């Protein structure tokens, strides 16, 4: 797509404006770093356009503080006080599932929480409660079978209005990437942890 111009124009009966205003389902997957960061960057762009932004973190612990959370919440406060941008919500749905996956003692509790989280998102989609959704690390509950992938795809395909949805995480199901409008795969070439270096503030969180 050189200079933002599509290389082909489908014969679908839609105008250029109609195609431009179609809702986007995006998936950021792969083994490389930056999937969530890219999605949060898109959320900031959406905020600037005045869209109602909601982030749902499905894996990271509620105690895990990430810099993008503070930044987006600050932007939400800017909207509340000045009217600039759009409203922002940030919800932590998980309890560190990615680190506790081998702990089968609590697996069913996490699965139940994941399904409840997805049900809430589906309800909000039906109500057109937000304009821009980030389902951060949502691929894991799908990959583990905690949430039914086919149900998710059907719900997203039938979502009303112009609601954009960005899903992040490794091992995105093939059916999900097939259904998405935008798929980006992050490929790791090199990472500081390969050399025994731990994550740094401002880089990893």
Question: What would you note in describing this structure?
Answer:
It comes from Gordonia bronchialis (strain ATCC 25592 / DSM 43247 / BCRC 13721 / JCM 3198 / KCTC 3076 / NBRC 16047 / NCTC 10667). InterPro entries: CblAdoTrfase_CobA (IPR003724), P-loop_NTPase (IPR027417). α2 (35-48) runs parallel beside α3. This protein has a single domain (21-186), classed as P-loop containing nucleotide triphosphate hydrolases (Rossmann fold), CATH 3.40.50. The relative contact order is 0.21. It has a 6-stranded parallel sheet. The protein has helices spanning 16-20, 35-48, 67-82, 97-100, 107-127, 139-143, 149-157, 174-179; strands at residues 25-29, 53-57, 88-92, 132-136, 164-168, 182-185. With 205 residues, it is of the alpha/beta class.
Question: Secondary-structure blueprint of this entry?
Answer:
Elements: H1 16-20, E1 25-29, H2 35-48, E2 53-57, H3 67-82, E3 88-92, H4 97-100, H5 107-127, E4 132-136, H6 139-143, H7 149-157, E5 164-168, H8 174-179, E6 182-185
Parallel strand pairs: 1-5, 1-6, 2-3, 2-4, 4-5
Helix pairs in contact: 2-3
């Amino acid at each position: 797509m050189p200079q933002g111009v599509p290389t082909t124009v489908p014969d679908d009966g839609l105008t250029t404006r109609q195609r431009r205003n179609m809702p986007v389902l995006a998936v950021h997957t792969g083994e490389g770093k930056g999937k969530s960061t890219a999605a949060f960057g898109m959320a900031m762009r959406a905020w600037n356009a005045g869209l109602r932004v909601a982030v749902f973190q499905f894996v990271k612990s509620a105690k895990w503080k990430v810099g993008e959370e503070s930044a987006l919440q600050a932007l939400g406060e800017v909207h509340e006080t000045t009217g600039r941008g759009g409203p922002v919500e940030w919800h932590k749905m998980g309890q560190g599932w990615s680190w506790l996956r081998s702990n089968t003692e609590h697996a069913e509790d996490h699965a139940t929480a994941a399904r409840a989280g997805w049900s809430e998102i589906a309800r909000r989609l039906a109500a057109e409660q937000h304009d821009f959704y980030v389902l951060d690390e949502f691929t894991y509950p799908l990959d583990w079978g905690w949430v039914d992938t086919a149900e998710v795809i059907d719900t997203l395909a039938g979502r009303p209005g112009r609601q954009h949805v960005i899903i992040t995480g490794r091992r995105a199901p093939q059916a999900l990437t097939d259904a998405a409008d935008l798929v980006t795969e992050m490929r790791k070439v090199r990472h500081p942890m390969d050399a025994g270096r731990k994550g740094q503030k401002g880089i990893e969180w």
